[in-house]
Amino acid sequence: MSSTIWSVDEHLEDILAAVKPLEPIELQLPEAQGCVLVEDVVVEIALPPFDNSSMDGYAVRVADVEGATEEFPAVLTVVGDVAAGDDGLGPGRRLGPGEAARIMTGAPLPEGADAVVPVEWTDGGTGEGPAAAMRAHSEAPEGAGGEVRVHRPVEPRAHVRDRGSDVRPGDLALTAGTVIGPPQIGLLAAIGRSTVTVRPRPRVVVLSTGSELVQPGAELTPGRIYDSNSFALTAAARDAGAIAYRVGAVADDADTLRATIEDQLIRADLVVTTGGVSVGAYDVVKEALSAVGDEDGTGGGGVDFRKLAMQPGKPQGFGSIGPDHTPLLALPGNPVSSYVSFELFVRPVIRTLMGLSETGRPTAKAVLATDKALSSPAGKRQFLRGTYDAEAGTVTPVGGSGSHLIAALAQADALIVLPEDVTSAEPGTDTEVILLR
Description:
The chain is of the alpha/beta class. Helix content is about 20%, strand content about 30%. The chain is built from 9 helices and 29 strands. The protein has helices at about 10-15, 30, 130-140, 180-190, 230-240, 255-265, 280-290, 335-355, 405-410; strands at about 5, 25-30, 35, 40, 50-55, 55-60, 75-80, 100-105, 115-120, 145-150, 160, 170-175, 195-200, 205-210, 215, 225, 245-250, 270-275, 305-310, 310, 315-320, 325-330, 365-370, 375, 380-390, 395, 415-420, 425, 430-435. The strands form 8 sheets. A 7-stranded mixed beta sheet has the order 1-19-21-22-18-14-17, with helices on both faces. The chain has a 5-stranded mixed beta sheet with strand order 9-6-8-7-10, with no helix packed on it. A 5-stranded mixed β-barrel has the order 23-26-25-27-29. α1 (about 10-15) packs parallel to α8 (about 335-355).
């Protein structure tokens, strides 16, 4: 274990210098959700691909309904129906003077028409009011003729979705670096893309170490505690964008820990352990991690255990393991220490593997809202839990500074940062906060 005291920034810089984005792969749209695009996507077709109606009604020529009123409606001959999926009124067929076509939402605008009259503005061919018009419109047989009375005029292109009004060929649909979510998948599908080239979501294996740990739901015998860290960190990894696998608690035995990690390397782009890195406990972990998966002598093993000038989270470990040099971060075992360490170090690694430029949580300035001064050890960067009020621009501490106070962590939505040169922060002090939500 190194005797050098590392700063938070030095440790993070050292970690990120050793981590590279995952290689791009081509994925089908459903599998690409949560991944990051590595190339610009250019539109090849217009969207919508044709002029179409934005509602049920009648396709008309504006000139034919000019001046129409309830008392003196425009009377038009209904020459056909146009439903979604139709090709207008058919090849070569145009809407002529005094004609209308019954049209459904999404149906292509017939040749010769330049607006759509909502069915509520007509009698639906019944000579009655709007309700009867809507009923008649929905129940009329396909291709039905007859007449329709239009009670209002319309502007040109009214209720028409113009071809290319969303995007046109050559437009940039999505830029490289975009995280693909549901709206992006919808756009890609709409412009005809079935696959995209992305960096895959990192696979993160999370395991806790400690013979005292019991799985939730099991009997809690004297001297044992429930394993909460592996659950919290697995959830945090998923929240950061990873595909996370929770292994659970592993006893304080080097051979068991080594075998467990070796079994997991086949599905890991990153391994995160929690526990066993403090003085008096780290020897077993260090022994287990010194040559994990390095049977072929490629030099893949090697984890450096460090002391950081921070609170909580002083003991940390970082290195690469196995023949593929899989990065591993060893975090402290106290619940708050492990979670704070995840936010500061593991989350940026996950986001870097994804190929994102913004890897950390957003930060803000806030006024410290507290009744008494907050103390902080000299030379250490302290991270306290707090609740952030964006409207008021304040942050209020939650709970104490103890690294075991997980209940306070569950109430917090921010970390209050007290720099290394600050030993006391008075009420009303401007502070930096890391926003957790």
